[in-house]
Amino acid sequence: MNKNLKIKSQPNFISPEKATLTEKYFSNKEWIYEEKFDGIRCIVVKKNNKVTLYSRNRNKLNATYPEIVKIFEKQRKKSFIVDGELVAFEGGVTSFSKLQQVKREKISVYFYAFDLLYLDKYDLKDQKLIDRKSLLKKNFHFSSRFRYTSHIIKNGETFYKKACEKGLEGIIAKKADSKYVSKRTRDWLKFKCSNRQEFVIIGYTDPERSRIGFGALLIGFYKKSRLKYAGKVGTGYDFEFLKTFSSKLKKIESKRAYPIENKLPKKAHLVRPKYVAEIEFSEWTKDDKLRHPRFIALRFDKSPKQVVKEKR
Fold it and tell me: Which of 54, 64, 183, 196 has its CA 20 to 30 A from that of 96?
C-alpha cells in the first residue's frame, strides 16, 4: 500500500472496470479468483453522508433497493465509493431472473462488495487490487445482507470447475497487483460456465396456436455502428411477460426498415432498438447466429448501443 497517498476531491461517480470473456482458463499465483455473480453491477457512492446506488451506466437504483441504501447509510465511514453486485438467490444460487422480480414480489436482496475505489479523501484506483480489497475488508461492517466477496489465490482452474458443478455462472480472474481502470480490460477475465450475454431486441414474430403476445423475439448486436441479426428466441418466457411485453413491442414497432446484417424471418415485425435482453445459448454458428437460445430477462443497466458480440 502506498503510504504517500494524495488527497483528491471525491467524484460523484466512477465508471466500472469490466472483465473480458476468455476460454483460456489458468491458475497463477499472481491472480486472484472470485465467484461471478448473476446480478446487477452496482457502484455505491457515499458523499457528504448521502448514499447513492448507481448501475454500470449511471442509472440511480435507490428507489428499487432502499434496504441496501440503509445498510450503507449506517456505515461509519462518511466518504467512499464501493464496487459490487446486487443479487438475489434462487435455490442457493444467485439469479438475475429472481432479482428482476423485486418490484412485484418481496425478495431478499444482497450486496456483494468486491472493490474499494475511494475512501476518506483518498483516491485508491492506482493502488494494487489486493490492497484495495484489504482496505475494503477492514473499513466496513459486513452483515448477512452486505457481504465481502472472498477470493482464492492461484488455483483458478479448480475453483472454476467447482463453480460450474455448483451451477454458478462462472468466476472472475483478477490480476492481484492491477490498478482500477474504468474500461474493459484483460486484467479482469471472465470464466463462464455457460454461454450468456446481452442482445438488442430488434423485432418479434406473431404468436401461433395457443401462444399469446408474440411468438419469438428477434435479437442482434452492434458490429461497428450497424446491427447484425443473431437469431430468434422462442423459449424462456412466462405468461405474464408474453402478455405485458407484447404491448410494449407494439408501441415501438418501426414503420421504416433500417439496415440489419443477416436476413430476418418472413413476416417479422421490426422494432426500434430500445430494449436489451440477456440470452443463454449453446454456441455461435459461423454466420454469427445463436444455437438453442433461451430468454433469461430484460436488462436495464446497459444501453443498446453498448451491445456487441463478446470476444473470447
Answer: 183
Q: What are phi and psi of 215, to 5 degrees?
A: -85, -55
Report the Cα 180 to chain-centroid distance in Å: 18
- Say whether both 130 and 244 belong to one domain: no
What is the rounded distance in angstroms from the CA atom of residue 170 to the CA atom of residue 88? 16
Write out the catalytic residue numbers. Answer: 36
Number of domains into which the chain is organized: 2
What does the block give as the cell for 170? 462462472
Rg of the chain in Å (alpha carbons): 21
The label of the residue with cell 446481452 reads 198
pLDDT tens track for 89-109: 999 999 998 998 898 889 999
In the block, cell 456505515 appears at 75
Task: Specify the DSSP element, H or E, that contains 157.
Answer: helix 156-165
Q: φ, ψ for residue 231 (rounded to 5)?
A: 130, 175
Q: Are residues 185 and 41 in the same domain?
A: yes
Position 7 in a domain: no
The residues facing 40 across adjacent strands are 86
pTM: 0.83
